[in-house]
Design a protein that fits this description.
GMP Synthetase, Chain A, domain 3, 14 helices, 22% strand, long-chain fatty acid-CoA ligase activity, single chain, Feruloyl-CoA synthase, alpha+beta, AMP-dep_synth/lig_dom, Rossmann fold, nucleotide-binding, ANL_N_sf, 3 domains, globular
Length: 456
């Protein structure tokens, strides 16, 4: 920051730097300059910079304009018109330095004159108690969280009926963010809602990114299904471009960033010759003969890799298949096998896995639960079942390991949004990957009980 930049402090000051107290700013008389400054704000005026999450590449400063933010909120309103009749009430833990909370959630409250209660909790074993306490006090009308947070909340509501009834008392919409949610979790939330208020609460999903402000695709029609990301909102153009055996999603419209701050080369690389933003996300039509049904998420193009045989592995699709098969006990998996003979997987568990334990107390630590014979037997059964139903080596997972430690944000293994950074996990846990493929596997490595050899 330039040394002559003025700093604002609630208390104190910084020696050698121009500074002003906040209370002095608040008492500044209103002059015509305020109106002039307001008039000077145009759609292309920079509102802020937000850094990308760095899930696949180094973070970049995305230029967020006022036009992007306001267009994004209007697009959202036209997909969810109930907002016109009921100002939103949010109880939100998600961090403002990410586009989901900092742009969408915060902007939603501003755009509709709603209320935002800042939740100091988090979807962790230690942080969930604070979130539950807050939700007992304030009933949201829309609730945003990552699937892991919704899983932990659902488990709490099964035994805490006061929490359940308060949570659903005026809820209009549930919105999982940051990662895919399993169908069994959706079913559990539906059951809890029906028991509490007599009806299911509409649940929606979407796809977006920091560069799209973030709302870009929306599954806001009835009959929610896992993996469905829907259709573009009004005002946004989307095209699908072949990239190998996948289709890349590309965007163009008033809610798309103008570029990365002071990085013209990266900006040029981000757009194609028709001005569409290249997202790196892949999708396919739910039904090629009924495209109005929208799109299904097909993973990140950059996540895919080849086995030693040269066979490509579709990481996104296979990951979703494993999570669905292991529901409701799997938080996420990381697929291994780049340039190796066969696939393997590292399994991150959800707290519900404690119900599988046969020799460990339910309140034992994550490491004890992961190593419990009952949990290991469940993982072995899952591995065998997946192998029996695989179609070729690109789907055949031959080995697995249940991880004893949860993903760590400090190491970049998990973003604040709750999604797993596959590359980071493979790097930070490289020793475990080597152990998974060791000639003499250790006690923590599960090998499929082979009944057949998969075809290439």
């Amino acid at each position: 920051m330039p040394p002559d930049t003025e700093l604002v402090f609630l208390e104190g000051a910084m020696a050698g730097r121009p500074s002003t107290r906040y209370d002095e700013l608040a008492n500044t008389p209103v002059t015509q300059q305020v109106a002039q400054a307001h008039e000077a704000v145009k759609p292309d005026t920079v509102a802020k910079f937000l850094f990308t999450s760095g899930s696949t590449k180094l973070p970049k400063a995305v230029i967020n304009t006022h036009g992007m933010l306001t267009c994004n909120q209007q697009m959202f309103l036209q997909c969810y018109p109930f907002l016109t009749g009921q100002p939103p009430v949010l109880v939100d833990w998600m961090p403002w330095h990410h586009t989901g909370a900092g742009n969408h959630n915060f902007g939603l409250v501003l755009y509709h004159g709603g209320s935002l209660y800042i939740d100091e909790g988090k979807p962790t074993v230690d942080g969930m108690a604070q979130t539950i306490s807050n939700l007992k006090e304030v009933a949201p009308t829309i609730y945003y969280s990552v699937p892991k947070g919704l899983e932990m909340l659902a488990q709490a509501m099964k035994t805490d009926l006061a929490l359940r009834d308060r949570f659903f008392s005026r809820l209009c919409n549930l919105f999982p963010q940051g990662a895919a949610m399993s169908a069994p979790l959706k079913h559990t939330l539906d059951e809890l809602a029906v028991a509490s208020c007599g009806m299911r609460i509409p649940m929606t999903a979407s796809l977006g990114m920091t560069e799209t402000a973030p709302f870009a695709l929306s599954a806001h029609l009835p009959d929610w299904q896992a993996g469905i990301i829907g259709t573009p909102p009004p005002g946004l153009d989307v095209k699908l471009v072949p990239q190998g055996d996948k289709l890349e999603v590309r965007y163009r419209g008033p809610s798309i960033m103008p570029g990365y701050w002071r990085q013209p080369e990266l900006t040029a690389e981000a757009f194609d010759d028709e001005g569409f933003l290249c997202s790196g996300d892949a999708a396919r039509f739910v039904d090629d003969n009924a495209r109005e049904q929208g799109l299904r998420y097909d993973g990140r193009i950059a996540e895919d890799f080849k086995l030693a045989s040269g066979t490509w592995v579709n990481v996104g699709a296979l990951r979703q298949r494993v999570i669905a098969a292991g529901a409701p006990h799997i938080h996420d998996i990381v697929l291994t096998g780049h340039d190796r003979d066969e696939l393997g997987m590292l399994i991150f568990l959800l707290p519900t896995a404690s119900s599988l334990a046969t020799h460990t107390a339910p309140n034992a630590g994550a490491a004890a639960i992961a190593g419990d014979p009952g949990v290991q037997a469940w993982a072995q059964s899952l591995l065998d079942s997946l192998a029996e139903n695989s179609a070729g080596s690109s789907q055949f997972i031959g080995r697995a390991m249940v991880l004893r430690d949860p993903p760590l944000m400090d190491l970049g293994e998990m973003t604040d949004k709750g999604s797993i950074n596959q590359r980071s996990v493979l790097k930070t846990r490289a020793a475990l990957v080597e152990q998974l493929y060791a000639a003499e596997p250790g006690s923590g490595t599960l090998l499929v009980r082979r009944s057949r050899i998969p075809a290439v």
